[in-house]
Amino acid sequence: MKTTLSIVVFCLMTMGLTAQKAEQLAMTPPMGWNSWNTFGTDINEQLVKDIADAFVELGLRDAGYKYLVLDDGWMAMERDENYNLVADPKKFPNGMKQVVDYVHSKGLKFGIYNCAGATTCAGYPGSRGFEYQDAKLYAEWGVDFLKYDWCDTENLNAKGAYQTMRDALHATGRPILFSICEWGDNEPWKWGEEMGHMWRVTGDIINCWDCKVGHGTWSSLGVWPIIKLRKDIRKYSGPGHWNDFDMMEVGNGMSVAEDRVHFTMWAMLASPLIMGNDLRSATKETIETLTNKEVIAVNQDELGVQAYCHSDEGDMEIWAKPLANGEWAFAFVNMSEEAITINHDWAWHPVKDDMSGRALEVHNKNYKIRDLYNHKNLGTSKQKLKATIGVHDVLMIRLTPVK
Ligand code: GLA
Q1: Is 204 a catalytic residue?
Q2: How many domains does the chain have?
Q3: pTM higher than 0.85
Q4: With 50 as the cut, is the pLDDT of residue 114 above it?
Q5: Residue minimizing CA distance to atom 5 of ligand 1
Q6: Domain end: 246, 279, 299, which one?
Q7: Reduced to 3 states, what is the DSSP secondary structure of residue 377?
Q8: Ligand 1 proximity of 45 Cβ (cutoff 6 Å)
């Protein structure tokens, strides 16, 4: 009896530890790549290998991108005779484990997709009723990340469905980052911290600055409609649990300047930075934006506070993000169709973030100012900040207190 009790206590402790360990998975916003925005269901083994190689060759791995995530369309249409999911034998002739091993051999982590419903959004077998079995299979393959979607979920309670999969992942004993993709319908920011590490806050992104494309019951949103819709849920985001503004469209058709703004804003909003472009054919400018280590450092700041809109004058928006150690990041975004010259007097523009209780103390401190795209110093907060910002472009700066 005593032995049984000790075993039970030991098991509970181990399960607790595993869960705890899993919670350490996303102390800063997860960074990676996802196949959906560019490839849809047109994915295969060679593509995964090429993308993994590109992570290394283009310096993306060194810049911090870690997860290579295969989205919808990786499965065969039917489960096998034991009801296990099977990788589509045409797309993945050597099975999924071999692909996962390849990704791991490059020093990267592997992510996979499924759905809480009976079928995925593209009509493949979903996990409803098979949560523990599927989680076990992913763990056997060495999966490190699960994106879990919300199609075909009739009569399912969202919180309950994500909790079931969370528990199934924990039960495997393998730390697997859990990415909730519920599009914001059931306000996942209110319960997501308990269930997973990041949650989508809207329907799907589309590669434009400011457009919406309707699909009957839902709309794809461009960069600014997404930001505007969800800028006010910042208090729910933080280390271990992030508002996910969706996979990025950097490199997918906007101008280089607009891509810079998109990347800046995702960094400022502490969103996961999940690339969504074809890395094999990415331009030099795209890679330069995506690997900007000074911008990435703002996203990865350990304080984990999502930026807020400090001022919005129509043509110009200023976004502010308090950072650890009394530092700040600012993005001056030119929303207009003409270049704008700024002459910003810090003393005249008090900066205070009520949510995080932090203020920019320009009256009793001096801050040195660093331009994060031009990689140069721009004087200090005692001087006026002068710059010209191009159309749909950004001046992104970091303020560090002078010791
Ligand atoms: C949903 C998700 C997308 C993608 C597709 C796959 O639309 O929001 O990110 O995963 O499903 O079918």
Answers
A1: yes
A2: 2
A3: yes
A4: yes
A5: 121
A6: 299
A7: strand
A8: no
